[in-house]
Specification:
Largest sheet: 8 strands, parallel
Number of strands: 8
Oligomer: single chain
Order of helices and strands: EHHEHEHEHHEHEHEHEHHH
CATH architecture: Alpha-Beta Barrel
CATH superfamily: Aldolase class I
Structural class: alpha/beta
Number of helices: 12
């Protein structure tokens, strides 16, 4: 396939939700607010801030309302929250003035969906349809996410037609953006290229977002394949934080600082300050009290002569 590489991309930072949720350390609300605000200074225009999941399911995110109320971000930053079900939407709409986008989701894998949220795919889609109407009526931007789009550890490869069929249903619900999650890191660059080629044909006018995990060390190569296929929207997590809680042990998202570094060195504009992204990741490292392993944290930024920039 010939390159359709865009000249610029948008990267949504998902660390404050997708990243934090799987971290074993309890992160204090004040620390979350401080880290999110450090990301806001790096130039992000979209940050996934919180999830309205039951506190007993993911205690790490139980302070989502306090975080939303406490953060101070530039007016240019769109704040997104993840909504797991209608009860979560009830709670979210009670503080609707504190966020701008709402994301609904489903897994393309029946088994993963059952293990993740204890519902069949069709039950989830029915609830998503009801939520979509309420989200749009509230004047919010509606996003949708399809987990295990590139494969599932329980079911293996997920048929492309199944994934894109779910995406088309989300588009019919009014979602203007659909994210495809490589939830446990099973994608490969060749399939990613074919996947997005087909997705762009079947979903004209919809913003398609790539979300990769680094389970098998292929996260950045998969992002490159998506870029070459024409993808202009990506999600990543600073410090390579997070992972999927189902199944246990799944590794984190691709590191935002590594993704920004790669794109910028390729001449693809991200609109982000790499030094400040790395600084935010290092601040997360300090907060968690352990070393994070993204290459950019370990090495620091590199200037255009190939010389390491000292910090």
């Amino acid at each position: 396939m010939s390159s359709r590489r865009p000249s610029s991309v948008v990267i949504r930072e998902v660390g404050p939700r997708d990243g934090f949720q799987n971290e074993p350390e309890v992160i204090a609300t004040a620390d979350k607010i401080r880290l999110i605000e450090s990301l806001g200074r790096a130039g992000f225009t979209r940050i996934e801030v919180a999830s309205f999941v039951r506190p007993d399911v993911i205690p790490q995110l139980s302070d989502g309302v306090e975080v939303l109320k406490g953060i101070h971000l530039p007016s240019t930053v769109s704040r997104m929250v993840l909504i797991p079900n209608s009860r979560g939407l009830d709670n979210a709409l009670a503080v609707r003035e504190y966020f701008d986008e709402a994301s609904i989701f489903v897994s393309a894998s029946e088994t993963h969906n059952l293990k993740n949220i204890n519902r069949a795919v069709e039950q989830t889609m029915a609830d998503d349809k009801a939520m979509a109407t309420r989200i749009l009526d509230a004047g919010l931007k509606l996003d949708a996410v399809i987990a295990t789009s590139f494969g599932c550890p329980y079911e293996g490869k997920i048929p492309l037609d199944r994934v894109l069929g779910l995406a088309e249903r989300f588009a019919e619900m009014g979602a203007t953006e659909i994210g495809f999650g490589d939830t446990t890191g099973m994608a490969n660059p060749a399939y990613v290229s074919d996947f997005f080629g087909a997705a762009f044909e079947r979903l004209p006018g919809v913003e398609l977002t790539a979300h990769f995990h680094n389970t098998r060390g292929q996260g950045l190569t998969n992002a490159y394949a998506a870029l070459e296929a024409g993808c202009e929207s990506f999600e990543s997590s600073f410090g390579e934080l997070g992972g999927c809680p189902v199944p246990a042990g799944s590794t984190g998202n691709i590191a935002t600082e590594d993704l920004v570094s790669m794109f910028e060195e390729m001449g693809v504009d991200t609109g982000l300050d790499l030094d400040l992204v790395i600084a935010a990741a290092r601040e997360a490292q300090s907060t968690l009290g352990r070393k994070l392993t993204s290459h950019s944290i370990l090495a620091g930024p590199v200037d255009w002569t190939g010389t390491l920039v000292d910090h």
